[in-house]
Records
---
Amino acid sequence: MKLTLKIWRQKNSKAKGELKTYPIDGVEGDMSFLEMLDVLNEGLINKGEEPVVFDHDCREGICGSCSLQINGEPHGPDRLVTTCQLHMRMFKDGDTIVIEPFRATAFPVIKDLVVDRSSFDRIQQAGGYVSVNTSGNTIDANAIPVNKHDADESFEAATCIGCGACVAACKNASAMLFTAAKVSQFALLPQGRIEATERVLNMVAQMDKEGFGNCTNTGACEIECPKGISLENIARMNREYLSASLKG
Ligand code: SF4
Ligand code: FES
């Protein structure tokens, strides 16, 4: 395939960025989107030009770092896949593909297609954990019975990889789906109930402090989430937040 790529280039967080056009040839359907960018970068390096900077690590849908806005959609046109799992067979010969970083005030651009998502780390640090007694009298986790339905729902929430597609998809740049997944994975388990009140209050407070917008129930986050994290998690977090506020 021959394609035309329009890629956001930005030297650093202060510089004004712009879309630059790069023609590319010899793209095969079996290539992943990142492999296609590797080919482009190899060509740029061979010509003595600066390669396009983009984030990636696992390249198998686990780490959540390969976050690109492709033709206006986080992770591109396929469903339930990350950018690294997106295959070029989703495009056709002659297509123009616009590639941008995720856009949100709380995700400032570092360079080209890489954004700073440390705001997510700070939301996690505000309460996305359980405290465990490591005195030597620790109870084996399997000794606490957990209802199968709750265990499954908790596991599903825990599959959130923190990619930020939910924020990039939302017209308000809301981080509710991410935060709700992180709150839910513990709220559903007995081990998570002990710190549940302060967890939801602290994580929501941090989310607001980072400058993410409000949720207006448009549901774009759920559609674009590569892990299929459900909006039900947001409803659960809202219930958790209400009951924590009443206690507080
Ligand atoms: S909820 Fe989905 S889209 Fe949002 S950070 Fe988690 S995996 Fe990514
Ligand atoms: S590179 Fe890790 S999820 Fe894509």
---
Amino acid sequence: MTAAAPFEIFLAALPGLEPLLAEEARAAGFAAPAAVPGGVTVTGGWPEVWRANLVLRGASRVLVRIGAFRAFHLAQLDKRARKVDWAAVLRPDRPVRVEVQCRASKIYHARAAAQRIERAIAETLGAPIGGEEAIALKVRIDDNLVTLSLDSSGEPLHRRGHKQAVGKAPLRETMAALFLRACDFDGQEPVLDPMCGSGTFPIEAAEIAAGLAPGRDRSFAFEDFASFDAEAWAAMKAPAPAIPAEARFFGSDRDDGAIRMATANAARAGVADRTDFRRQAVSDLIRPEGPAGLVMVNPPYGARIGDRKLLFALYGALGVTLRDRFAGWRVGLVTSDEGLARATALPFLPPAPLVAHGGLKVRLFRTAPLP
Ligand SMILES: C[S@@+](CC[C@H](N)C(=O)[O-])C[C@H]1O[C@@H](n2cnc3c(N)ncnc32)[C@H](O)[C@@H]1O
């Protein structure tokens, strides 16, 4: 290349969520989604890169494969890096930083390799190197094959730009969205999170129901690429007509501060009219009027907050409340601790794969509609 369409687009995912992200990409109309370790590959051109950043709720970031070549030593890397048509993708006035990972290759010194590529970019294109705001060029040298990928997202995509306030252990929006998908949420039914913290589940669900694109209010690294077309992007971003509010999205938490945060986050996301947050302990939970829906909950887990024995009692109480008052509702429970999940005595379906989250591995436990 450099980056003549169509090319490979890599949608990075939290390990364990690749198949769900592949499903999301397929449903969103991306071409040839294939789950691979660490993400999903699709093919497309620049408009698909922009659209992936704008609409995919489950991708952590979107990388663009701009080229690949073999290099067996640093002088060869230097020479081949100078042949890349950097001007087709990068601008001379925007800083770039190069991050290299080497594996099973003759070139094993990542920093030395990064310096060669940085120098090639600086000397052939004239772009400044480094700095906080720099566009990231991610380079993998694997079995002597050098693969160049531009990070088109910048800030990770779970930062939708609405959540200023977070609690002790917030769930990533990307993970919340894919767990909603795993529970077959389609925007038409109510969702309730009885331990909502900063409100991630109800806010994601309300946005999905309203047809709001997750990237509508933030900026992206690709806006600084040579290939960027501001007019086409503005047209792509133009808000779709709002879907009338029907289903409601409920969050409660025993902590006052959590409810204040969740309420403010929902207002910033533009879904205040669809969400309902209140301070309430799980034991006081009331089933909302209207049709059954989905309980999504991410209770505290021992390794992060509190003491495991108390947590057994808490999970037990949650299970009793849901079994007694939520017949017909489905449950999706996220925890790192299978023993705690079992303490709810909820009739879980076979467990989903483990997902890496903040140094822990968590898992989604789902039920069918409760009897
Ligand atoms: C792991 S955090 C949930 C984080 C949330 N998913 C988010 O994205 O911000 C667990 C939450 O459970 C709440 N909690 C703990 N015990 C509770 C109880 N008995 N009733 C209601 N909420 C409780 C805590 O206040 C905390 O906000």
---
Amino acid sequence: MSDIQQAVRKKYGALAASVTKASTNTGCCATAACGCGDPITSNLYSDAETKELPADAVAASLGCGNPTALIALEPGQTVLDLGSGGGIDVLLSAKRVGASGKAYGLDMTDEMLALARENQRKAGATNVEFLKGTIESIPLPDNSVDVIISNCVINLSNDKDAVLREAFRVLKPGGRFAVSDVVVRGAVPANVRRSMELWVGCIAGALEEKEYASKLQTAGFKDVEVEAWRVYNVEDARSFLTDSGLDVDAVAPHLQGLFASSFIRATKPTAESCCGPTCCA
Ligand SMILES: C[S@@+](CC[C@H](N)C(=O)[O-])C[C@H]1O[C@@H](n2cnc3c(N)ncnc32)[C@H](O)[C@@H]1O
């Protein structure tokens, strides 16, 4: 496991533990994981969606979008959530694909998996399975998944090409990739890139939007779209950047409008539209 993966696992293990602890204490807003007032993680889901879920699944939401709102899911489909955390998007997907479908969550952090499995139990979801593993080496067979979702996780990976290659491999021909991720919209100052703390927090590890599209195409995807939907301003990020030891007033002018939560969509070609010797193998 790389240093970055270890740092990411430590951070999310602690956040999972804080949700579990808060649920037996004072409730959501006592934890850093809850996103109360946080411009990245707040207001991502409708009340209709959250009221159907266990409170701890909602409290553990650490995403930066709502990938399940990005894509039509049909009864009977198989969905895979890369970096499923406390399981919010897996449980929402499970309702949409119904009893004849299946929703997998994949995460490398034991504490998050334990929290997600407990949330599955509370939700009574029988068409859900949480898998332990990394998104760079997905523990599922080739051509086995209809839809891949992910919520603010690919920006944490230090091998994004491997993630996209693996996503392509496990998707069925015609399968869809529908992801929320933090994306950079221009050049990032070197001191931001260098900060491990920012990397863990979804900033320094984010791809530039054209690079994201290009990597998806290299992995074999077609119909690639990267659409910014929530552009962060520096004030949104002030405490986050300060906690990372940066002089916010000094870097602020270089960061304005550069980071956005984006919807990223792409499709694995079907055999008929495949133009490469191995792309649909
Ligand atoms: C920002 S949280 C997002 C969780 C969830 N998607 C959500 O919206 O609440 C990142 C999650 O991805 C997991 N994660 C990060 N990097 C990973 C990797 N390389 N492989 C598997 N899981 C990873 C972490 O353990 C954590 O649960």
---
Amino acid sequence: MKNNGNPYIPHAATVEEAWNETYGDRCIRTFKVVFDDEEIRESWEHRPGQCAIIGILGVGESMISISSSPTEGKFLRFSVMRMGKVTKALHQLEPGDKMMVRGPYGNSFPVEEWKGKNILTIGGGIGQAPLRPIVEYVKANKDDYGDLTTIYGSRTSDDLCFRNEFENMMEDDSVSCHLSVDVEEQDWPHFVGFVPTLLMEVNPSPENRIAITCGPPIMIKFVLENLKKLGFEDEQIYTTLENRMKCGIGKCGRCNAGNLYVCKDGPVFNYATLKQVPEAFA
Ligand SMILES: Cc1cc2nc3c(=O)[nH]c(=O)nc-3n(C[C@H](O)[C@H](O)[C@H](O)COP(=O)(O)OP(=O)(O)OC[C@H]3O[C@@H](n4cnc5c(N)ncnc54)[C@H](O)[C@@H]3O)c2cc1C
Ligand code: FES
């Protein structure tokens, strides 16, 4: 990359598209952004599962998963939940506005290692943001992988991220796609109940399959239990952690879970590794 990949250097990017995925106080807004500098745009490389630090000059920065797959084109997508100072400011951005982007940070899903495997993603709420790139990556390289199953749920249909994309995937015979909301709603045609229960309904075989889960800690806890009931081995299960970060490059000690630095060793972890670190689920 132009700056030798120096992760401290932010690059200006322009918001090409922006839309609200969900509603309410903690709504999620997705941004499609393009680097202003052509050389950065062309040389930027990220892998599914990686993050970037995005921000607004004079306001601050936040670590956010890159929710687009590199297979989609020379742009990045970020899906941001409105939480505090920085994310509230980001939510004001409209097409044509600028943000600063630096990275990419962290490890990634081992997509090369997974070639030939069936892929299962299990997401909840904003946890679908780091899973979306793996879904898009596998769809774009479907000859390299077995079948693709994707399970996603949120509290209500208003809290579902990427809803149109999921509904399109339901029309696509090459993806087995399952949506849920926690409680009954008028005109909701899909599953009603928690994501771990939907996982048991879908009942995916563990044979030659990788399961990747991301979502609220309580969902992950029960998804992990149910994956074990379905016969998945620890080594077949991956998740991502979102511990609070500062430097993003293993210097400040802000993001530790036991002996793991989430920024440097993660955010993607195999469950066999995480099980050795009780603090990871604290
Ligand atoms: C690896 C990684 C990937 C992430 N990916 C995304 C993403 O794709 N989309 C997204 O919306 N957010 C993501 N986050 C979380 C995001 O970084 C924070 O929500 C954001 O920095 C909050 O900044 P703020 O200034 O708006 O809020 P602040 O004022 O800093 O915080 C507002 C509230 O959010 C809580 N909070 C802040 N950060 C975290 C965190 N990491 N975990 C739990 N609670 C937190 C604070 O305790 C406080 O209650 C990710 C975090 C990490 C570490
Ligand atoms: S964020 Fe500084 S060490 Fe991980």
